[in-house]
Amino acid sequence: MSENCKNCDTEILLNFCGNCGQKKVKRIDRIYLKDEIQYTLIHTNKGFFYSIKMLLKNPGKTAREFVEGNRVNHYKPLALVFILSGIVAFLNHSLIHPETIYAAYKNIQATKSPFDMNAFYDVMMKYYSFIMLLNVPIMALFTWLFFKKWGYNYYENVIICAYYLSLLLVTTTLIVLPTQYFLSDHPMLFMTIPSILSFAISTATFFWFFIGLYNKKSPGDVILRSLLMIGVVMVSFIIICILAGIILAIVFHWKPH
Hints:
Order of helices and strands: EEHHHHHHHHHH
Structural class: mainly alpha
Largest sheet: 2 strands, antiparallel
Distance between the termini: 82 Å
Strand order of the largest sheet: 1-2
Number of strands: 2
Strand content: under 5%
Shape: globular
């Protein structure tokens, strides 16, 4: 039995309106709610864990296929960054307790620093998901500029960088976080080894990701462009950190001794 679409009033001959895509109306009842909840949970979990699995398997290929249209089974890339960074912040705050470690490190150093690590950490963890999201369009600008001739526009680079940062968040959770946990009783090692490990992982995953993304280019060309970009990004990051430090010093009234 046909009926008119409640959205555009076009006659619906099958299950969906051929004009606007509206589904044929079904009265909301217990079965409707059960189906909605089941679909939401299964679909979300399937997409979330499927995307993580594919990122760990072949991250560059995963990003390339998503940009080129293979999207039905994947979690939305920007949402993936947001959720994963929230998980990292929660685990870091719940398991590591860095405020205690920073205090112990400060006592070992026996120096008074104008920089309050706990205050900085609290701000970082409170807004970590938003900070990571903000990194996506900034990083995309660099990847677009350095790989511009290889085919992807800026907006596609936003998605590409969202996938890379998701990969970085997953590997950080799997490798760096456990390292921090086991070094939590050794403040000096805690302040050095995880930082070195994070740098090594971010560099290695970057090469792995973009070699897989640009699989038709030689790995040497990809690595060369990546190194040039990393150099520029590092210089830019240092400048940003200096400016951010000045701003934070003004905001929190830090006074050097």
